[in-house]
Amino acid sequence: MSAPVFRLFTALLLLLAFTPGHAESLSPGAPTHIHTTLIAERAATPGETITLALLMQPDKDWHGYWSNPGDAGLPLTLDWTLPKGATAGALQFPVPQKLVVAGLMNHVYVHDFAILIPLTVPRDAKPGTSLPISAKAQWLACTTAICVPEEATIATTISIAAPGTNPAADPRFAAWRTALPAPLDQPAHFATTATGYRLAIPFPAHAAITDPHVFLTTDGVINYAAPQNFSRNGDTLVVDLTRATTPPATAPTALAGVLSLGPDGSGISLTAQAGPVPATGEPLAGAAPPAAFSWKLLGLSVLGALLGGLILNIMPCVFPILSLKALALARGNTQNAHLDALAYSAGVILACLVLGGVMLGLRAAGSEVGWAFQLQNPGVIAVLLLLAVAITANFAGLYELPGLSFSTGAPGQHGLLGAFGTGLLAAFVATPCTGPFMAAAMGAALVLPMVAALAVFGALGLGLALPFLAIGFIPALRRILPRPGAWMVWFRHAMAVPMGLTVLALAWLSWRLGGATFCAAAIALSAAVVVLLAVMGRSQHSGREVARWMVPALVVLAVVAVAATPRLANAERHEDTSLIGAKPFTQAALDAARAAHHPVFAYFTADWCLSCKVNENVAIETNATAAAFKKAGVVVLVGDWTRRDPAITRFLTAQGAAGVPLYLWYPASGEPQKLQQVMTPSTLTTIAGPTAV
User: Fold this and answer.
1) Domain co-membership, 53 together with 167
2) Is 568:517 a contact under the CB 8 Å cutoff?
3) pTM metric for this prediction
4) What is the residue-averaged pLDDT of the chain?
5) Which end of the chain has fewer surrounding CB within 10 Å, N or C?
């Protein structure tokens, strides 16, 4: 389990310690999802060490966790109550299984399993008596959708036999011991590599192995979800493991864990010491990647992304650019309209592919990022502010921007480059917007293989470009658009107003992400851009070439904006007042509210997410919602994703969401519900009525 997840679940563990759980022995009316039984193998003689078994039996579709649960979950804990002189040893777990949920690797048991525990009987135990053994057990029971903290008091008695006797043993223990990993009878070694660690495990070349996997007992050393590459070098099995995103402060001196040999549950326990490791050999066939591929999932995701991109065309983020682009396309030469549309579409699709590819690459490397991740960087916001200022100045007539200019006729080579650049710009500006169909498609892209996921991002770009492809290739659609005339100059100037409002919004966002000093610096750079563009406009009107010096000057300003960000931006969060009493989201806060049987509304937002802010003004932060929530006793938790937050990113991923907004309703009892992304004023007041209690 990675460090951020460990901290997240530590709070949950504290919650378990002080919250009444579902204990079978203490509260028979509150059943658990994993049933526990403590069993002694046989009677014991004084001073002898025997074996106990904690039998854990999950309900259908539920699972428990190994000693190191992986990316999520909690290990079992036992608080023993033993007779004086008795001692319990370390827990011995059977070989675990892999379970990948939304890209997170879990080490689990989806079937009945027994944990073996050595117990030493007191030397002064009297033959013919019985020793009471009990412990308070705490564990986490999960499905692929929800997790429930559970606890029970487990107990058994051990009969004390006279020395020299041979008590009969429970025959089940033989099978339970077989399920334990066998100890490796030869030394294993490991070496540090550029990306992680390479293990050398002695393993006969002729021995069969299917779908192997290494489970490390030490937490936070490797990236659990990253593929493990196996190869054979003679009688050595070579395994390449990827280092954790946040590795431990000190390099490990040994790697202990279990090598699972396949789906039959067999395995080998090992402890690898630092030492010589051979080169990789022949790749091992049969090792399956953690992500599953489904043609149905890919088809639905591509369709959702296509529809989501199409809807983005009416979002306020990009509407001013797109409306002017449509009119410029309509004004262009009919013969070349399709070339302009293709160039624009190529720019849009390329931008979506690059953004999606970078996001997937960062996630594969272990970074906790989601869709629109670049907007969590103040430097990117500063560059966007400069772009918005430049576009506003163009709309106001200060200078001409190729691709959006009404003064040019047929596209030509220069116009095609302008159309391509406009497509890049439109896609980049559209990333803060999330509309219907997009959330599910982007979430699905996170669990698809790389090539399939890129197809989803390409479909998003195609949807965004589709209206312009239609206008470019269907003359009848161009004839529907208003005829060119003097009114177009007025319309262009009018579009400077919403773009100017976008400039103000980005200036506000630069303050939210980077603080007052950073915001002031961004505004000063924007003023410098306006001066440069005014000079450019005068040069254009006089017919002089300006691109040779103007483009480098603008690039320098953008580089300055990004380079100055680390020094000027601060990480201070802004605490906003909330009508509905929203508190910061944490997994522990959610678990505590649910354990207390309160209805919970959890919503995830960002300052750069326009649809988030619209929903907050229309449906969330309203007097009507506040009154309804107060009456129903609703606990409100808000996850602010304006800045990068690995814990929130991980939670979003677990919910199948690649970004914000995300709205979740947890009734006082029952299953959680994911709400629609477009809210009406009555959405929350309605759900907080009869269903809240």
Assistant:
1) yes
2) yes
3) 0.50
4) 80
5) C
